[in-house]
Specification:
By secondary structure, this protein is mainly alpha-helical. It contains 8 helices and no strands.
């Protein structure tokens, strides 16, 4: 029977390494663009959602959207960079990319209202649902890699770390939204969760691009 780590390690190709490098570049550029838009825009700071940087009254809305579309591209490129043994994770990342792009294309109204304490518009629901779907798909991809025996050890470690931090944060955000609503608590937790997701994607892309995860898999299979 083939060693699962050797099987995963043997699938690295120059094209996948290039996709991983491009994913890291897009992810870093996207994260910086979104951070600049949120920090420099006229939003309410930590008491609001990150998406409020995209409202039409903000002069940094184009910067925010460019960042979001760059992050969507990063997820899609990361899905391409994963070895064939991780098809489920790749499919989840592809779903996350589509949801991320949709959240950037559909802008929420002022305040990005969400139920149960506010009355959202149809666009707010589409934007909010796409944003939630993007994060959920990305965290699910972490879990898929974390539990896969065919993933290289380096990728599993990164996925377990990412999922171990992201899952409690996601649960806390869900509880906070339905119990206290929009405010500093939800805003702060949202920023932490998105930072974890972006950090995991960047670290995974860098590991794939540099081949570190694959080399670890080879050393263990000898």
């Amino acid at each position: 029977m083939a060693d699962p780590d050797r099987s995963a390690a043997a699938t690295t190709t120059p094209a996948r390494a290039a996709a991983a490098a491009a994913a890291a570049g897009c992810g870093l550029a996207g994260a910086v663009s979104v951070a600049v838009a949120v920090a420099a825009g006229p939003g309410p700071g930590l008491t609001g959602y990150i998406s409020e940087a995209a409202i039409t009254q903000s002069g940094y809305a184009p910067t925010y959207r460019i960042g979001i579309f760059s992050l969507a591209a990063a997820l899609l490129l990361l899905a391409t960079a994963l070895p064939p043994e991780l098809r489920r994770a790749a499919a989840l990342l592809g779903t996350g990319a589509v949801c991320t792009a949709l959240s950037g294309a559909v802008t929420c109204s002022a305040g990005c209202p969400l139920p149960p304490f506010e009355t959202p518009t149809a666009a707010d629901l589409v934007h909010g649902g796409a944003s939630i779907g993007a994060v959920a798909a990305t965290v699910s991809a972490m879990l898929a890699i974390a539990v896969s025996a065919r993933a290289a050890p380096g990728l599993r470690r990164l996925a377990r770390l990412g999922a171990g931090v992201a899952l409690p944060l996601g649960l806390a955000i869900a509880v906070a939204i339905v119990t206290v609503g929009r405010g500093g608590l939800v805003g702060g937790l949202e920023r932490l969760l998105l930072a974890v997701a972006a950090g995991w994607g960047l670290a995974t892309a860098m590991a794939l691009g540099a081949g570190r995860a694959d080399r670890r898999g080879r050393s263990r299979s000898r």
